[in-house]
Amino acid sequence: MDPTLVVLFYSSLAAGMAAVGVLPLLGRRKLPRHWIGWSNALAGGLMLGVAYALLVSARERVPLSGALGALLGILFVNRTHAASGTSELDLNRLDETSPDYGYKVLLVNAVHSAAEGVAIGAAMAVNLSFGVFTALAIAVHNVPEGTVLAAILTSRSVRLRDAAGLAVATNVSQVLLAIVTFALIAAAPGLMPWALGFAVGSLIYLVLAELLPECYREAGSTSIALVTLVAMGMVALLVSLGPGG
Amino acid sequence: MHLVIIVFLYGLVTALATGLGALPFAFVRRLSPRITAQSNAVASGLMLGASFGLVAEGTQYGSWQTIGGGMAGVLFILVTHAILKRYDLEFGGSRGVGARRAVLLMVVMTVHSFAEGVAVGVSFGGGMTLALVIVIAIAVHNIPEGLAISAVMRPQGTSVLGCAMWSVMSSLPQPLMAVPAFLLVDTFARILPYGIGFAAGAMVFMVIEELLPEAYGQDQRHGVAVTVTVTLLAMVIFAQYL
Predict the structure, then answer these.
(1) pLDDT value at position A245?
(2) pLDDT at B129
(3) Beta strands at B90-91 and B94-95: parallel, antiparallel or unpaired
(4) Cys bridge to B163: A48, A164, B149, B150, which one at CB 3.0-4.6 A?
């Protein structure tokens, strides 16, 4: 298969997996609160694992351009949060009824998946098998993320089918940015450390600013830490056994 | 001088360097909730960054062993935490939850020095040519670890000198473990990935369970997130270039 098609296929798969996230909502009206917290912790742990993989997979020192790329990544997410008024948005609220909360949650998810797209594209450029690994890790990460989004949407009386569609739709920027990043690095290999740095910086920042902060209120800190750590450990183990490791 | 004594003395120098991590707090006068949050965020970033580096190193010796060690590390913290909860502690000028957190951090960082001591000894065993470079590298590398300890203990009311002393204490196992590891390189090289995993698992767990919620509770979360992310990356890059 042509490498670009590989990127298209796996990033689309990752985006599509968000729809699987609605499954826990089948046949129940509301998800228990601690499930929401754990889903966010699981998504956060997987994302930290991916950031770890991108950061150490090169087995090389991070060059200055990589460090600058990371700062850009942090800046990008920080500024988009600030500009959209979502810096302190709680992604766990099932009881929030204001209309703009729903739109903000969708917006946050859309911006969030752009950073994941850069991660997939950059990892694919390192080598395809490492890219596939990263895309699959992001795909799994998108499941609990889809669960949280669907839980919020259905609590606002969006139909389950539509919630699944919206969960996938917010991840479309992932596909686009994966392909753009991959193509850009192919055209200008010097961009590689910038892209990798951007991905690492934005992913870690997303976990710490978006996924972790509020989930402590939904479930106890011990269970949150355990879920996060198990998810991180799985990715770290697989990346050291598998491709790029 | 006997080689063992040299290794021990070098190790001692690296432990003393840890105390320098308390230095920044000599210049911070007022400990507002914001400073407390940011201190915890700095400690979180440093410990997460150190763990990233440790896991990357440990998996080169053995992936499963590192992960197994990590699980043992988490279990160890859970048990220690459960035991500490039963007592009304007083430690370094603080009581209750603060004292418990400080003790737990001391335990985690001391355990982490054990693993690092083994790593030092094993790398010395590879030959003495680069010894001085390694010692300087480790001494410098220990300063942020002292900073992490001080950043948690200082807001609890421990004096700057106390922070420095406890930082040095946490690093003392390093020279103690470096010597046997140096003498029995082959044996210790085998247990190294377990030790590294143990230290990393304990540190990451401590960060996510204790330090981050504390930081989020006292400052706006994007401020915390920026500090943690930047210190994490700085720690990884710093360790790579040493």
Answers:
(1) 42
(2) 52
(3) antiparallel
(4) B150
Q: Do B63 and A241 touch (CB under 8 A)?
A: yes
* Mean pLDDT, chain B, whole residue set: 84
Mind telling me how many Å the CA of A160 is from chain B's nearest CA?
A: 31
Q: Tokens representing B132?
A: 């001085």
Residue range A46-71, pLDDT digits in tens:
999 999 999 986 667 889 999 999 99
| Reported ipTM | 0.93
Spell out which residues of chain A touch residue B51, defining contact as CB-CB under 8 Å: none
Tokens at A68, concatenated: 């600058």
Q: Which domain holds residue A214?
A: 3-241
Number of structural domains found in chain A: 1
- What 3 state SS string does A135-155 have? HHHHHHHHHHHHHHHHHHHHH
d(CA A209, CA A10): 27
d(CA A221, CA A108): 24
CA distance B51 to B66: 11
Q: What value, to the nearest 5°, has the Cα angle with vertex A35 and ends B75 and B100?
A: 35
